[in-house]
Amino acid sequence: MILPIRAFGDPVLRKVGKDIDKDYPGLQELIDNMFETMYSANGIGLAAPQIGLDLRLFIIDVTPLADDEDYEDIKDELADFKKVFINATILEESGEEWKFNEGCLSIPDVREDVKRKETIVIEYYDENFVKHTETFSDIRARVIQHEYDHIEGVLFTDHLSILKKKLVKGKLTKISQGEVSISYKMRFPK
């Protein structure tokens, strides 16, 4: 089932997510719905707060990037990089900070350069509640960091300079008021 994505200004996007356990009701259905929702919006990541749930759950599927010329050198790593992250904790961020132009399904039509560290170590449970501690770099780390921010109540616009925040403020206000043209199901703050 395709769920509405919460727009900038919705209070749930600012909540720190709660841990869940393997007995969370309808967990597999929720995960399936999140993937369906993400795909319908042409996204590569989606966090539970974006669909109105303050849970420590996010999903990623960067396989579409495997065909992008910019990622030719990591094509094989991206080709099957589809993951579920439950109760994730980033243990370490390292390496050089690099800028990348980020966007967000909850903040349509706003894209800005964000600096993030190039490598992360993250601990999480998968959809079968198997615990993992893994290291990721490149665009995979970037997408994980972006989605991880969502379960911490942080949006990519929070990483912008004061000047950039002022420049996008008008667009953010319009999004929160529903004054945006989008091709996917969205729920705006009341």
UniProtKB/TrEMBL annotation:
Q: Which domain of life is it from?
A: Bacteria
Pfam families to which the protein is assigned, alphabetical: Pep_deformylase
Q: Tell me the CDD domains matching this sequence.
A: Pep_deformylase
EC number annotated for this UniProt entry: 3.5.1.88
- Recall the GO molecular function terms of this protein's record: peptide deformylase activity
Q: Which cofactors is this protein said to need?
A: Fe(2+)
The record's keywords, sorted A to Z, are: Hydrolase, Iron, Metal-binding, Protein biosynthesis
Q: Which family does this protein fall into?
A: Belongs to the polypeptide deformylase family.
Tell me which PANTHER family the record gives: PEPTIDE DEFORMYLASE
Put simply, this protein is called: Peptide deformylase
Organism for this UniProt entry: Chryseobacterium herbae
Which lineage is the organism of this entry classified under, starting from the top rank? Bacteria, Pseudomonadati, Bacteroidota, Flavobacteriia, Flavobacteriales
